[in-house]
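in:
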């Protein structure tokens, strides 16, 4: 069983919004050291978009999404969400949720090798 489950992807016009959610597949509270969102566009490498350290909600964003995307820990919904506003065609890709359990990780680097637990991804398409 895949440990993490992403939801909320879809097709949206430029300038539109989507809200992605990452939940634990068992339905339990998300309980990792840090959670990140990555995306992978066709023909491109997977890149880190945003991350949050859960104990203190220390947050980092990829430069191109600052001011448009917001990551948050929804404790009631037992999820880490990514609110995406003012979407652009270049935001298109498969969005993956990833987690690390290790406090020694360089989670803030938004490098894929720092995260050892992954979901299957959800497709986001921004097109008119």
């Amino acid at each position: 069983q895949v440990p993490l489950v992403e939801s909320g992807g879809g097709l949206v016009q430029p300038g539109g919004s989507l809200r992605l959610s990452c939940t634990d597949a068992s339905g339990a509270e998300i309980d990792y050291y840090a959670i990140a969102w990555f995306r992978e566009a066709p023909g491109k490498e997977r890149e880190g978009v945003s991350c949050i350290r859960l104990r203190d909600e220390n947050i980092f964003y990829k430069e191109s999404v600052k001011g448009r995307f917001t990551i948050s820990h929804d404790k009631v919904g037992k999820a880490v969400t990514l609110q995406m506003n003012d979407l652009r065609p270049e935001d298109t890709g498969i969005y993956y949720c990833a987690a690390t359990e290790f406090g020694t990780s360089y989670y803030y680097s938004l490098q894929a090798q720092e995260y050892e637990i992954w979901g299957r991804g959800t497709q986001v398409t921004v097109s008119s």
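note: The mean pLDDT is 95.
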